[in-house]
Design brief:
The chain contains five helices and eight strands, in the order αβαβββαβββααβ. With 169 residues, the chain is of the alpha+beta class. Strands 1, 2, 3, 4, 5 and 8 form a six-stranded antiparallel sheet that branches. The protein has a two-stranded antiparallel ribbon with strand order 6-7.
Length: 169
C-alpha cells in the first residue's frame, strides 16, 4: 500500500431522494455517513425537478455532504451502495427511475478515475444545477479535478434548466 492510499481525502457526495419521506431519507443517509466517517458538512437542502427521469417522476430533494476519510474510493462506493440499499433503494435497470435514496460520489480528493464501477470526479456534476448549487454552499471556489472553473463559475455558466430552489426545513 502506498502513502497515497492512506492519506486523508476530501470526499463530497450528492444525495437525492424522490420517493417516500424524502427529507427523512436524506437525514438517515447523513446519519449513516456521519457514523462511517466521524462527521460531515452538509449543504442546504434543495427541491429539484427531475432530470433525465421517466415522465411523471416526482421532484427530488438534493443536498451535498463533505467528509474526510482514508477509506479507498472503491470502498466508499461500496458503502454508498449499502446505505442506498438499507434506505430502500432497488435497482430495476431503468435509468433515472424514482428512488428512495441516491448517493453519488462527486469528488474524492484530486483523484481522476474512469473504471466500469466508478468515474471521478462525477462525469456530469458540472452540468447539473442540483449538484452545483449545494456544492457552492460547501465550497464555492472548489475546482473539480480536470476542470478549470470553480463550481460557482460553473453554476453561473449553466443554461436555464429545471427548477432548483431551497427547501424550507
Amino acid at each position: 500500500m502506498s502513502c497515497a492510499d492512506t492519506a486523508t481525502q476530501r470526499v463530497i457526495f450528492s444525495l437525492g431522494s424522490n420517493v417516500g419521506d424524502r427529507l427523512a431519507v436524506l437525514e438517515s443517509a447523513c446519519d449513516y455517513l456521519a457514523d462511517a466517517f466521524g462527521g460531515l458538512r452538509l449543504s442546504q437542502v434543495y427541491e429539484t425537478e427531475p432530470v433525465g427521469c421517466p415522465a411523471g417522476s416526482p421532484s427530488y430533494l438534493n443536498a451535498c455532504v463533505e467528509v474526510n476519510t482514508t477509506m479507498p474510493a472503491e470502498e466508499v462506493l461500496q458503502l454508498c451502495m449499502r446505505i442506498e440499499k438499507e434506505l430502500g433503494r432497488t435497482r430495476n435497470g431503468v435509468y433515472g427511475a424514482p428512488r428512495t435514496c441516491d448517493i453519488d460520489i462527486i469528488l474524492y480528493g484530486e483523484l481522476q478515475l474512469n473504471t466500469p464501477a466508478l468515474t471521478l470526479p462525477h462525469p456530469r456534476a458540472h452540468e447539473r444545477e442540483f449538484v452545483l448549487r449545494p456544492l457552492c454552499d460547501i465550497d464555492p471556489q472548489l475546482v473539480l479535478p480536470g476542470h478549470t472553473l470553480s463550481v460557482s463559475d460553473m453554476l453561473a455558466a449553466l443554461p436555464a434548466g429545471p427548477a432548483v430552489h431551497a427547501f424550507d426545513l
